[in-house]
């Protein structure tokens, strides 16, 4: 027999003994590492009464993404409400908001091309895109409605609005893009933490701008023309 010191600290959760296993990741993303761990644990037969749970940073990340998803849905709902109030119609509000999912595709594409993970910072950039993308559509369609109310035919009004609003839309978009370039390139102390956010916004705005200038007014003119024809 040998005399030894007992365990200095006993961990319990819900009155059940618990052993904590931690690990350090190098050259691996958190999601991929956890997926491999779950695959290994799936085929592991534990004794009766034993269970396992993956927590730590992975659990915190899942909770944060769940909350961000709720914030994203709330942002879309609020923006849509403001658009309906502004235009007093459903069709232009829906068409302007349709540019948001397309901008998300551009943001995700740039993240993939740069090898950047989809984390909390990039998810915040996706939420930020909802408000940035719709402003171009508001500027364009609101001016076309104003011209139409002044007596100009609708097809001519929306084309006229596109020519007049093209310059301010490009100016505001390029100012935003170039303002985010230092963060996107990771320049400055602590900039690497916000680089995913900047990349998401840059990719989303780069794709949503031509969509707003071409697709949204084209669909609006087609829908208006179909309604006039009926």
Describe what you observe in this structure.
This protein is mainly α. It has a single domain, classed as Multidrug efflux transporter AcrB transmembrane domain (Multidrug efflux transporter AcrB transmembrane fold). 72% of the residues lie in helices and 2% in strands. It contains 6 helices and 2 strands. A two-stranded antiparallel sheet has the order 1-2. A hairpin with a 2-residue loop joins strand 1 and strand 2 (16-17). Helix 3 runs antiparallel to helix 6 (195-229). The chain starts with 11 loop residues before the first strand and ends with a helix. The mean pLDDT is 81.
Secondary-structure blueprint of this entry?
Layout: E1 12-13, E2 16-17, H1 30-42, H2 56-87, H3 90-113, H4 120-149, H5 154-184, H6 195-229
Antiparallel strand pairs: 1-2
